Each structure stands twice: as C-alpha cells, then as structure tokens.
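Suppose a colleague, Dr. K., hands you the sequence of a protein chain of 83 amino acids and asks what its three-dimensional shape might be. Before reaching for any lab equipment, you can write down a predicted structure in token form. Begin with the sequence itself:
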Amino acid sequence: MLTHTPPTEIYRASDAPYYYRGNKVLISICALSLLAFVLQREWLKRLNRRKERVWASMTVEERASYQADYKAREEEGNGRLDF
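The predicted structure, expressed as tokens, is then:
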C-alpha cells in the first residue's frame, strides 16, 4: 500500500525547502508501522497464551496422541497447539 508511494508524492516541490508536510507524512507512516507492530505482537502473545493453556490442560497421553496424528498436522498447519 504505502510501499509504492513515489517520493515525489511525499516531498513535493511546493513544500521546499524544509518539507514540513513530507516529514509529517513519513513520521505518520513510521508511527502507524510501530502501532501495527505492537498490536500484532500483543495479538500473537494472546494466541500463544491461549494455546499454552489448552496444551497445559492436556494429559501426557493426550499430548502424545495429538502429536502422533500426522493427517491433522497437515490440515491444521501452524494453527496447531504444538507449532
């Protein structure tokens, strides 16, 4: 989305020589990227805690059975508890 924005659209000649508007745009993009990073990090930590709770509630036999099921492993992929 923003990766294909040409520099001439951010740093316009009408904003020269200090480019206040262009710098505000880039600072905004950086702030949004940082926010997206933090939100994704927290979301993944939440998902991992949820998986850990389910995994901890399983018995040793259930865990072994869960890990031995190769067909389910292929279907579930990275959504598995032991991923």
